[in-house]
Structures are given as C-alpha cells and as structure tokens.
C-alpha cells in the first residue's frame, strides 16, 4: 500500500519565512487529508510518513527537538505547531478589534466577517456579544446605531436590520438616480438667486472698509443680519495668526494670502473661498480606507472636499450618495458640480475618525480640503502653549550622567541558565533589526564566554510596526533584592497638587533605559536570541526592583525644585500662578538637560490648566475621574463569570472615592465573588451593576483637601457597609466606604454606627 501513496510536496521553511506559520498550517491540513484518504491509522506509520513527506528541512528541524517531544505522532505534531505558530497576544488582538470600523467599500456582512475573524484571535468568552458591541460602534449608519442602542437586540437581529436598511438604500438610489440632477437644481434655485443678489458687490483682496458696505472682519456685507452674525468671530487669520478676522481682509499682510474656507449658512448652500497666491498652505497626507490622499488643512472649513480626479484613484471606491448641497466659489454665483458624498474612515498616523466627504468636479488633487473639525479629530490641529524647550532634549538617546544603578543579587539563589525559546521565522528579521537598534543606542551588548544567568525573550508586536523585545526575568528576579523605596500614592499626588492652577507633564523617552547599569549588575540581564547572547547595559523593564530604583534616582535629581512631583517617569510641574509654574518648569528642563536626559515630545504637555494623570483629572480647584476611565466603565457589558465580575469591581474600586455609598451598592456583586456562592446573575445584581455605572457617569467634581479649612466628616452605616464623606466649606473632598464582614453585618444598627 505504501507504493500506492501519491507524490506529496515537501514543506520548505526558507521559501518565505514571513509566511511560514500560515503555510505550515495549510500544508499540515493537506497531509492529514492524505493519510485520512488512505486510511492510515497506525501512529508509528503516521509519524514516519510525516517526517518523510516533510522534506529535508523538516527532518533537520525535528532532529534538534528533545526525544521526549518526538516520541509519538501527537507529540511531534504539537511541537511543530508550537514552533511555527506565533504566540498570539490576546490583549493586543482585542485592541485591534476595538479599532475596527466599517469601510465605505464594504457592506455590513463583510464588516461582520472581518470582526468574526479578528474575534477568533481574542479568546472572548462571548464572541457574539463583543462583535455586536463593536458593530454598533463601527457601522457607518447612524440610524442603525441609534436603533441598536434604543432596542436591546441580538447580533442576528442587528445583521437582519442592517441588511434590510442596505437593501432599502440601494432601491432608493435606483429610483432617485434619474431625477437626481433635477432634484438638486430645484432644491437650490431660490438660494442661488438670493446669493447672487447679496454678493453683487465685488470684493477686492485689500482689507479696506467699503464705506459701511463691507465688514472689516469677514469681508461680507455690513451690517450683518441678526440671524447670521459675523462669520469671522472666533476664527484665526491664516495670514497673521490673529483672531476674529479672515486673511482676505487682513490689515497686516502685504499681499493677498492663500485662504481656503468652507462655511455653512442657513440654507443648504456651502461657500468655498479660494484666493490664490504663492504663499505656502499647510497640507497633510491622510488615509482614506488605506489609500493615501493629500489634503489642505483648513481650520475654518466646515466640510471635507475631494476632487473627482482623486476620487477615481481610490482603490476601493465608495458608493456616492446624492445630496442637494450646493458649493459655490468665493464671490461667485457659479455653483460647483457636486457629484455626491460618502462617509468613510479617515486615518492619520495612529488616529482615525469617521468623516463625510463631498466629491466635486475637478482635475487637481491640490484642491482636496480637510475641514477644521476632521483635522482636530486626527490630531492635525492642536492648541499649544508656547514653551521654549531646548531642542537637544528631544534629540538622540539619553543617558543620565553621574548615576549608575547597582542591582543587589542574593548569592543564596542558584543561577539558572534557561533553555533558548525558538523565535518564529516570520519575526526574525524584525528581531534582528531591533537588536541592532539597541546595540547602536548603547543599550545592550554582546556576551562572550560562559554566563551563569540566561533568560529567554518574548516577542511583542508594536502598534507602529516592528517588535519589542521583552526579557522573561521571572527566574532572575528571584535573586534580585528589591529596594523598598516608598512609591507615591494618589493621595500624595492630590496633596502635592493642591492649590495649583497651571500644570505641565514631562515624559522621559524610554525612561528606564536612560539609567546605566553598574558593570557588576549586567550579567543577570543576559538573554538568548537566535543570533547569540546579549545583555543590558541600562536598566530595563521586567526587573522587579526597577520602578522603585527609578523613582529614587529621579527623585535625587529633582528633589530641590519647588513645584515638581513625579511618579516613576512622569514628571508633573505645577504652580499657583503662571510665573510660578514657568519658573519651576524652566528649572526642571535645565536640570534634565544638564543631566543628559531626553524627553518624549509626543507625550509632553506644557502650561495647561487641567491635566489627566493616573486616572484622575486635576483642575484649578477640583479633581475628577478621567473621562476615558469613566467611558470605559460605562461601556462594559454585564459580566458573565466571576473573573469578569472581579475585573469590573477592580476598575470601579479605583474611582470609588467619587461614589457615595460604594460598599452598599456593590454588596450584591461582591456576594457573587465568594467561593461559597454559585454563579447566578439575578435582578438584584443587574440593578446594582446599572446603579454603579449610573453613579459613576453622573459623578461631580471633588475639592482638594485644605488643612487650613474647617473639616466635617459625615458617617453612616447600612446592613452591608460603612460610609463616610469628608466635607470642607460645603464641598465634598472625598467619599470612603468599606463592606462589613459576616460577623459585623450581624451587629445592631446602633453598634454599626458607633
């Protein structure tokens, strides 16, 4: 029978290392189909054929495995699957799922298929629930989203509603197609005539007041009607950057400047202003469904414009929907041809949003326009306070001077050189590039000769591409003695920031790597890669003592500067006045520059009056939970297991200081976490879950504690918990509560309140 077996292609590992995992899965499925078709059931024979058909590369690879892992067909299969299949980071895959939006080129069913494939990598306990939640957030139809939020529906019901809506939309477009041009003309005829009359007076590029006929701020007819005030109010001039006027009437500019602005008025018309000159305008390259498009960034524009030429070049052309909106050139009653509009996902770097684009007839891609609202959502527009930061603080890689970190090693713990973990072939090039980068930055070095400690590495993909090398220090940490340096608590931070009205946050670039390791402390950081052993020359993530050591080291640098506090690598500069804050900020930046530290420009914030930090938002006179934390908790679905419930309670405990009666509200939920209780989600748990989220989403702001003010403490007791409220001058400073033990809950009400 062996002679009757057909030819079967061997598996070539090096053919394409990046796709080795995917190709292996497909090849192995074909092999199992072969042995099933020929009714081969003997385990030894299956193993022999497996190695034979695998080819020379598989044979050589299997020869390197321990004998115990190749003794049976099942064991060999498991070992090879582990070798070729890259480790899946479920947290990262879940993050990717949360970012997924419906593309303009796909229908809801196609969006569902993409979500289903991604959810398979996330190990969700209830995949349908997670997919439904993301579909509600990610669909382009706001009508469908509103219906799903209003009515509690299942995933199948949601898909059915979506299909019906898409079918209705398609039928409506077909019916309206022949009448579209006439409909647009009829809907705008009156507005076009009115506009022609209003704009009959020519407008020059000079900023001269036309004897009461022209507004000196916006260039339109003056006085303005009460229903339509000056359009320039609150806008910034593109010529002189000063507020409350447009560049076309700017009195500071020597000549006509580039102005491109789209404005909405009471009618359905849209004005597009375009005054040409040689002055350079700000542009940005955005991604429309992964297709790069260059646009002019206009802070005054209210709609997004795409030319026909650009639209035809899109890889996935979205369906254009008819619209009666008319777009006019500046100072003209000549209406531009609007071909239609579409809604799509827009991306710039790591930010994305959903935006509507109007497609107009035109052959120049330089006339694509990005509105102010969309630009702000994509992070292209920011309102910054001017701070003179030395440029060298942002360049290069930092190493703090005159400071070396010594790890204290316990000699009683025997060294352990762990076995090398195979690195998947498709990631090896990325790993080699990262190793080279770290060597060039003087962060790691090659290891020669024998070494008592060797740790394996874990490869983690970065959001921006490439990989991050994480050393598994669990065994080595058993020998590293921790320095019990006190870490600041949130109460310490609140006390330090009390009375501050101006804030800055300074973030150090790869902070731990800026501290050099003592020569005698480097050997324990040795790790293995497929190109040899390396070890760290700088402090690294994964070392159990790293946070405390870094906290102490940075404290020794900044301890004598007033108005500065820090938590590990985040430095907070604060002051009661702008001048006080600026003085502390300058001293801090000068000290960091002197010590050779480097900053992360993207994460630094300067001179704001409200700052989010450690899950809390600190303002001039109050603190509150960070809005993103509140939103995350508010969007959590009811838990389906004890572990999910514990995670939810852990998140809410973090903000319990803002919730009155927290212990009493959560009592039905905490009951389910006891080992003696059987999981049963009932109405009382549902009510407690909803009440807790309601309390959190409606929470007010808290005052800072001031030791100079009169303080009141109000206390109360319930059958399930104790509560307290700290008040100063009628404002709540903090809530506190704790649950009662079984014995305490049997006390009388009088005893509980004593």
Automatic annotation (TrEMBL):
<dbReference type="InterPro" id="IPR000477">
    <property type="entry name" value="RT_dom"/>
</dbReference>
<dbReference type="Pfam" id="PF17919">
    <property type="entry name" value="RT_RNaseH_2"/>
</dbReference>
<dbReference type="InterPro" id="IPR001969">
    <property type="entry name" value="Aspartic_peptidase_AS"/>
</dbReference>
<keyword id="KW-0460">Magnesium</keyword>
<dbReference type="GO" id="GO:0004190">
    <property type="term" value="F:aspartic-type endopeptidase activity"/>
</dbReference>
<dbReference type="GO" id="GO:0006508">
    <property type="term" value="P:proteolysis"/>
</dbReference>
<feature type="compositionally biased region" description="Polar residues">
    <location>
        <begin position="189"/>
        <end position="206"/>
    </location>
</feature>
<dbReference type="GO" id="GO:0003723">
    <property type="term" value="F:RNA binding"/>
</dbReference>
<feature type="domain" description="Reverse transcriptase">
    <location>
        <begin position="441"/>
        <end position="618"/>
    </location>
</feature>
<dbReference type="InterPro" id="IPR043502">
    <property type="entry name" value="DNA/RNA_pol_sf"/>
</dbReference>
<dbReference type="GO" id="GO:0015074">
    <property type="term" value="P:DNA integration"/>
</dbReference>
<dbReference type="InterPro" id="IPR021109">
    <property type="entry name" value="Peptidase_aspartic_dom_sf"/>
</dbReference>
<keyword id="KW-0694">RNA-binding</keyword>
<keyword id="KW-0229">DNA integration</keyword>
<dbReference type="InterPro" id="IPR041577">
    <property type="entry name" value="RT_RNaseH_2"/>
</dbReference>
<protein>
    <submittedName>
        <fullName>Retrovirus-related pol polyprotein from transposon 412</fullName>
    </submittedName>
</protein>
<dbReference type="InterPro" id="IPR043128">
    <property type="entry name" value="Rev_trsase/Diguanyl_cyclase"/>
</dbReference>
<dbReference type="InterPro" id="IPR050951">
    <property type="entry name" value="Retrovirus_Pol_polyprotein"/>
</dbReference>
<dbReference type="Pfam" id="PF00078">
    <property type="entry name" value="RVT_1"/>
</dbReference>
<feature type="region of interest" description="Disordered">
    <location>
        <begin position="189"/>
        <end position="209"/>
    </location>
</feature>
């Amino acid at each position: 029978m062996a002679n009757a077996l057909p030819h079967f292609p061997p598996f070539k590992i090096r053919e394409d290392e990046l796709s080795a995992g995917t190709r292996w899965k497909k090849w192995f499925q074909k092999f199992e189909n072969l042995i099933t078709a020929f009714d081969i059931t003997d385990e030894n024979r299956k193993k022999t054929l497996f190695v034979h058909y695998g080819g020379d590369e598989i044979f050589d690879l299997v020869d390197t495995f321990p004998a115990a892992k190749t003794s049976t067909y099942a064991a060999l299969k498991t070992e090879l699957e582990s070798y070729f299949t890259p480790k899946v980071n479920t947290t990262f895959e879940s993050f990717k799922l949360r970012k997924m939006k419906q593309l303009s080129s796909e229908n809801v069913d196609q969006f569902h298929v993409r979500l289903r494939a991604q959810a398979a990598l996330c190990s969700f306990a209830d995949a349908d629930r997670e997919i439904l939640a993301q579909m509600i957030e990610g669909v382009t139809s706001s009508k469908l989203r509103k219906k799903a939020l209003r009515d509690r529906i299942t995933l199948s019901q949601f898909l059915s509603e979506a299909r019906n809506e898409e079918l209705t939309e398609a039928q409506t477009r077909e019916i309206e197609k022949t009448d579209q041009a006439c409909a647009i003309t009829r809907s705008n005829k009156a507005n076009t005539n009115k506009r022609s009359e209003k704009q009959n007076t020519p407008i020059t590029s000079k900023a001269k007041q036309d004897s009461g006929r022209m507004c000196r701020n916006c260039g339109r007819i003056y006085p303005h009607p009460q229903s339509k005030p000056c359009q320039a109010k609150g806008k910034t001039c593109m010529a002189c950057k000063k507020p409350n006027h447009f560049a076309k009437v700017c009195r500071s500019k020597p000549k006509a400047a580039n102005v491109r602005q789209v404005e909405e008025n009471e009618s359905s018309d849209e004005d597009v202003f375009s005054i040409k000159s040689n002055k350079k305008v700000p542009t940005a390259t955005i991604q429309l469904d992964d297709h790069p498009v260059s646009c002019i960034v206009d802070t005054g524009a209210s709609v997004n414009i795409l030319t026909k030429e650009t639209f035809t070049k899109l890889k996935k052309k979205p369906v254009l929907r008819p619209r009666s909106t008319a777009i006019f050139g500046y100072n003209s009653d000549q209406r531009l041809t609007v071909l239609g509009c579409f809604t799509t996902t827009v991306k710039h770097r790591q930010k994305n949003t959903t935006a509507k684009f109007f497609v107009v007839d035109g052959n120049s891609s330089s006339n694509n326009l990005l509105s102010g609202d969309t630009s702000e959502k994509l992070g292209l527009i920011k309102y910054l306070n001017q701070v003179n930061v030395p440029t060298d603080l942002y360049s290069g890689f930092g190493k703090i001077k005159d400071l070396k970190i010594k790890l204290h090693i316990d000699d009683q713990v025997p060294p352990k050189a762990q076995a090398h973990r195979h690195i998947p072939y498709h990631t090896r090039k990325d790993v080699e590039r990262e190793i080279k980068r770290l060597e060039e930055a003087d962060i790691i070095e090659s290891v020669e000769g024998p070494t008592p400690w060797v740790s394996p590495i874990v490869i983690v993909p970065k959001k921006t591409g490439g990989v991050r090398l994480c050393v598994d220090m669990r065994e080595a940490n058993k020998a590293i003695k921790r320095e019990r340096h006190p870490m600041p608590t949130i109460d310490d931070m609140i006390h330090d920031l009390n009375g501050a009205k101006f804030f800055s946050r300074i973030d150090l670039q790869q902070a731990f790597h800026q501290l050099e390791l003592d020569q005698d402390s480097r050997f324990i950081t040795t790790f293995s890669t497929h190109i040899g052993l390396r070890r760290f020359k700088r402090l690294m993530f994964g070392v159990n003592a790293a946070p405390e050591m870094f906290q102490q080291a940075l404290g020794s640098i900044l301890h004598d500067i007033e108005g500065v506090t820090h938590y590990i690598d985040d430095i907070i500069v604060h002051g009661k006045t702008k001048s006080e804050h600026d003085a502390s900020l300058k001293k801090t930046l000068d000290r960091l520059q002197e010590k050779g530290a480097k900053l992360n420009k993207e994460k630094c914030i300067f001179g704001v009056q409200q700052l989010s930090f450690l899950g809390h938002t600190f303002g001039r006179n109050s603190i509150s939970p960070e809005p993103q934390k509140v939103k995350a908790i508010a969007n959590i679905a009811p838990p389906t297991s004890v572990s999910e419930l514990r995670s939810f309670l852990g998140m809410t405990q973090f903000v319990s200081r803002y919730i009155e009666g927290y212990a009493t509200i959560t009592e039905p939920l905490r009951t389910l976490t006891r080992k003696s209780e059987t999981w049963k989600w009932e109405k009382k748990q549902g009510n407690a879950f909803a009440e807790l989220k309601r309390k959190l989403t409606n929470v007010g702001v808290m005052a800072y504690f001031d030791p100079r003010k009169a303080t009141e403490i109000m206390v109360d007791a319930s059958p399930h918990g104790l509560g307290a409220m700290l008040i100063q001058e009628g404002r709540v400073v903090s809530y506190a509560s704790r649950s009662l033990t079984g014995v305490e809950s049997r006390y009388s009400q009088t005893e509980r309140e004593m």
